[in-house]
Every structure is written in C-alpha cells, then in structure tokens.
Amino acid sequence: MRGLVLAFSAYFVWGSFPLFFSLLNHVAPMEVLVQRIVWAFLATLVVIVLMRRRASYVALLQNRRAMAWLLLSGVLIGLNWLVFIWAVSVGRVLETSLGYFLTPLVSLMLGRILLKETMNRFQAVAGALAAVAVLFELVALGHLPWVSLLLAGSFGFYGLVRKQQPVDSLQGLNVEALVLLPVAAIWLLWQVSTGGVIQFGSDLRTTLLLVASGAVTAVPLLLFAAAARRLDLTVVGFIMYVNPTMQFLTAVFIFNEPYPPLRLVTFAIIWVAMVVFMLGLWRSAQQRRQAARLV
C-alpha cells in the first residue's frame, strides 16, 4: 500500500508540472531552465549530504565512463525540460500530454531497434498504433506534432542512455544538473553583459517559484525511487499514465486550450495503444512468474 501511495504521489507531482510552470509564464523559458538547473543541483546536493551518500557521490564523479554517459543524458534532459517549459509558456500543454503518452512507446521502439530487445505481439501492435497516430496527425492536421515528438524522443533517448550506465536517480540528476551548470553560467553572464532581463530577484514571488523549481524536480524522483523498490515494475508501468492524463485534463479543463477535433482522434489511437501496451506488460509479467515457478 505504501508503495502505491509513493508511486501515485510521484506521478501526481509530475502531472502537476504544467500548473506549477504556468506560474512562471512571465519569465523567459531559457531563464526558467537555467534556474531549474541551478536549484535542482543544489537541492539534490543537500539531499545527498543529508542521506550521507558523499562517498558514493565522489566515486561517481571520479568514474569517467559514468560521467561521459551522464553528460549525454544531461543534454537530453535539458532539452526535454526546455521544450516542456516553452510549451507550457505558450499554451501547448495538450501537446506535452501527447508527448508523454508517446514516451513509453518510443522507448519500446528504441529498445527494439537499437538494443535488439524482444517484443511480444502486444508491444508490437502498440508501437504500430503509435506510428499510425503520428501519421494521422501529419495527414489530418498538415504538420507533425513536433513538440510531442521532441518530448517523447528526448526522454526516450534519455532512458536509453541511462540504461547504458545505471546510476542512482538522485545522484544521476545531480550530476546531470552539474554538467549543465556551465551552460547556465554562460547564459547568465551573457544576459548580464548585454543588459538582458533577469527575473530572478525582481520580486519575492518569482524568486521563490524559481528556487522551488529545483525542489519540485527532485521530489518526484525521490518518491518514484522509493516506490520502485516496493512495487512490481508492471504496476509502476500502469501508474505512469497518471502524469500525461493529468496534463491532458489540465490543458482541456483548466487552461481551456483550443484543439482541432481531429486531434482527439490522435489521442484516441494513442489511448488504444496505451491499453495494448499495458496488456503487453501484464502478459510479460505473467510469463516471468510462470517461469519462476518452474525453476
């Protein structure tokens, strides 16, 4: 029961991100990204110290192979954050929702193509339906849902990279923020030297929200890590769709985003793919249990 509460809490926080970052719509997306990097680094560093993980953290920093992979994953998660922040600021949360519905299916296809992972027939059908949804969007609306594809692609490749170098989620996020700090510093120096506008410090509310962006980045990761230790990954797979579902409902019923009726067809196809994907996860879990009983 505790694992379920932790998992739902993690995805509830992630699903609330559009509401949180919409409070920063008056701040340039690049500054929100920069502040998020800085404060996420500091927040995770404090937690690492409080949890007495300094020795393993220092060992990670000295591991050149791990640092190389985390540099790449840092770039990917930074791109994902920037696209998401920008999309929220311009009222395109519906597209972020579609992107996160697509993400598990993109990860599935990347695993099959790049890692030669096996796929059961349910997963194959789910991947094919996702491709149909994207093609329908292109034909019916005349353009690719590039926001959705960038979010799904960047996070899908992010997961692929992190799979090559498994690292504790908390320390991984900290190092990813660390490798992005030079970019953040360069942007801040450039803004100062050119007389650009920096909203941090302009008023208390904005400053506190920018500082809080670091905490809201770290908290769901900690909740998810705790949940994953207590739950079967199949259950976690089911719950993951709380996030994009909340984003979809937020876009439609809170932000009142306009959307072409044909986009509902895209979502309908994705929702069918999601159900098929979940059936594939359940079937795989059943087969693993049966194999374990035979051993």
UniProtKB/TrEMBL annotation:
Transmembrane segments: 5-24, 36-55, 67-86, 98-115, 122-139, 145-161, 173-192, 204-226, 233-255, 261-282
Subcellular location: Cell membrane
Primary location group: membrane
Cited Pfam families: EamA
Origin: domain of life: Bacteria
Keyword GTP-binding in annotation: no
Membrane topology value: Multi-pass membrane protein
Domain EamA residues, every copy: 2-136
InterPro entries: AA-Vitamin_Transporters, EamA_dom, EmrE-like, RarD
GO cellular component entries: plasma membrane
UniProtKB keywords: Cell membrane, Membrane, Transmembrane, Transmembrane helix, Transport
Sequence similarity: Belongs to the EamA transporter family.
Name this polypeptide is given: EamA family transporter RarD
UniProt organism field: Salinispirillum sp. LH 10-3-1
Gene: rarD
